[in-house]
């Protein structure tokens, strides 16, 4: 007899059912359904897994649409990676961009996003992402979020449409969302990890709820009357999983908060959620191996350069993030340096300044009145760095043309000329995992056949198939809020069981 893959799963499921129906396990499982708990400890309409930006947005929209949500967070505090993000968010902006003579549109944003991912992203979801970008900006502003009055091209952003928060990093986002959730009395369960997702049958039927466990081994079974939303982030903190899919990440650290281990993604996979793009893993500048601090001086690409230990410039600073990664890791030392002048340095916020000051104290960042003095402190060839700076200022900036690495003319506007000068190490750290659960435009989790798993949604970095091979800088927070809102609203509209 020949068995299809689908039939095989059916037989395996039947075998599992037989095993779990023995008396020893009957005390823990309902006699009506051996795959579900006999007793639910708590129940809510919408169970949101993950307390970062995507989860907070999903819970807020669920509450605003009449549901009773709860947020589950494995860390002892809410905010997740959103709180630690650099903070820039992309949107074609009909208000700010025209004032800066920048032509843009959602269609242009979508086209650039697809091209940056080597056309392996889902065009339908990318369109939703970019069409809803400006409405996310105004929604956040309605919650009390403040953005600076101009946009810029951020590192890896490829075009000047990045909005910077008035409050440094991602604290502004989590602050306004926390306030809104508190006003609606949305509860958080902190310090609990999701270890299993309950479905009616292992590979079929509705998603019913989740099993939680804290660091002391205490477990809770939480029922979802309407739906479960997964927003637990990626797997950058899972060294085995990321090196399995991309061996080039071996030896690299991560700049993300603890907890991004992919456990929730794998729990969804065990009940049929299909994983896509797992080998697409992004690295961004951070501390080289053996160094302590992640110091960022490259956020604005028009006034910073990357150089190697010989003082030579190594890449177009406005290039794709994977191109910059390969250039940095391609140096003999596997790290480089970022150099800026005082005008660029002063354009950065207090969080950057604090990091640089801490770096100077431990010889991981440097400042000096002249380029040659700076180079000596950095351990870089002084003549080589001076030659590079002179060429950058007097040839590339003057002619608005980069024959070396083809930096766009719009990013050749600022000389590195005003002392004192500043520099820091630029190594590579694992930053974003583009792979994860396959979803559709409604944020529903899909199985291997492309069929939605009933009552299961996902948003943010736990999903795959949007950014494809390479994520555009500034699109992560956008993804978080666009699909977090969609997931929360659609989850709330499910019928109650």
Write the layout of secondary structure elements.
Blueprint: H1 5-20, H2 23-26, E1 42-49, H3 53-64, E2 69-73, H4 80-84, E3 89-90, H5 96-99, H6 106-116, H7 123-131, H8 133-142, E4 147-152, E5 162-165, H9 171-183, E6 188-190, E7 192-201, E8 204-214, E9 219-230, H10 239-245, H11 263-270, E10 275-276, E11 281-286, E12 304-307, H12 321-329, E13 336-340, H13 342-347, H14 350-361, E14 365-368, H15 371-378, H16 382-399, E15 421-433, E16 436-438, E17 444-446, E18 452-458, E19 463-464, H17 475-492
Parallel strand pairs: 1-2, 1-9, 2-6, 9-18, 16-19
Antiparallel strand pairs: 3-5, 4-5, 7-8, 8-9, 10-16, 11-15, 12-13, 13-15, 14-15, 17-18
Helix pairs in contact: 3-9, 3-17, 6-7, 15-16
Notes on the protein architecture:
The chain is an alpha/beta fold and 497 residues long. Helices cover 34% and strands 22% of the residues. The protein contains 17 helices and 19 strands. Residues 1-30 have low confidence and may be disordered.
Low-confidence stretches: 1-30
- Overall pLDDT level: 92
The proportion of residues in beta strands is 15-25%
Radius of gyration: 24 Å
Terminal-residue CA separation: 40 Å
What general outline do the C-alpha atoms trace?
elongated
Number of strands: 19
Q: How does the major sheet shape up?
A: 8 strands, mixed
Helix content: 25-40%
What distinguishing features does this structure have?
single chain; alpha/beta; eight-stranded mixed beta sheet; 17 helices; 19 strands; 34% helix; 22% strand
């Amino acid at each position: 007899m020949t068995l299809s893959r689908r039939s095989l799963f059916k037989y395996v499921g039947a075998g599992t059912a037989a095993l779990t129906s023995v008396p020893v396990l009957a005390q823990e499982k309902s006699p009506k359904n051996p795959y579900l708990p006999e007793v639910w400890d708590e129940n809510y309409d919408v169970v949101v897994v993950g307390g970062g930006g995507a989860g907070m947005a999903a819970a807020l929209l669920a509450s605003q649409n009449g549901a009773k949500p709860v947020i589950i967070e494995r860390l002892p505090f809410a905010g997740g990676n959103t709180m630690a993000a650099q903070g820039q968010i992309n949107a074609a902006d009909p208000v700010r961009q025209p004032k800066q003579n920048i032509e843009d549109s959602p269609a242009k944003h979508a086209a650039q996003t697809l091209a940056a991912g080597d056309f392996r992203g889902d065009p339908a979801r990318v369109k939703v992402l970019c069409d809803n970008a400006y409405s996310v900006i105004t929604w956040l502003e309605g919650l009390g979020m403040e953005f600076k009055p101009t946009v810029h091209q951020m590192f890896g952003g490829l075009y000047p449409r990045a909005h910077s928060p008035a409050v440094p990093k991602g604290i502004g986002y989590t602050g306004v969302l926390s306030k809104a959730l508190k006003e609606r009395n949305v509860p958080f369960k902190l310090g609990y990890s999701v270890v299993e997702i309950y479905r009616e049958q292992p590979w079929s039927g509705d998603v019913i709820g989740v099993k939680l466990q804290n660091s002391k081994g205490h477990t809770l079974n939480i029922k979802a009357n309407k739906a479960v939303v997964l927003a637990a982030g990626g797997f950058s903190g899972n060294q085995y999983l990321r090196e399995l899919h991309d061996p080039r990440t071996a030896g690299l650290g991560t700049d993300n908060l603890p907890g991004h281990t992919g456990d929730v993604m794998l729990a969804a996979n065990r009940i049929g959620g299909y994983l896509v793009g797992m080998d697409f893993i992004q690295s961004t500048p951070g501390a080289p191996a053996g160094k302590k601090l992640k110091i960022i001086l490259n956020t604005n690409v028009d006034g910073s350069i990357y150089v190697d230990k010989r003082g030579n410039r190594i890449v177009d600073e406005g290039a794709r993030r994977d191109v910059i990664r390969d250039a940095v890791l391609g140096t003999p030392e596997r790290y480089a340096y970022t150099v800026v002048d005082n005008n660029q340095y002063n354009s950065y916020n207090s969080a950057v300044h604090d990091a640089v000051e801490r770096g100077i104290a431990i010889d991981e960042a440097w400042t000096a009145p002249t380029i040659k003095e700076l180079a000596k402190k950095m351990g870089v060839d002084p003549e080589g760095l001076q030659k590079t700076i002179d060429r950058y200022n007097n040839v590339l900036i003057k002619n608005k043309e980069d024959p070396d690495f083809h930096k766009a003319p719009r990013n050749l506007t600022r000389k590195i000329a005003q002392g004192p000068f500043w520099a820091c190490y630029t190594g590579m750290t694992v930053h974003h995992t583009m792979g994860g659960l396959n979803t559709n435009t409604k944020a529903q989790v899909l199985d291997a056949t492309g069929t939605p798993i009933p009552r299961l949604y996902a948003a943010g970095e736990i999903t795959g198939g949007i950014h494809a091979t390479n994520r555009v800088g500034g699109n992560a927070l956008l993804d978080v809020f666009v699909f977090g809102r969609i997931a929360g609203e659609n989850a709330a509209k499910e019928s109650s069981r």
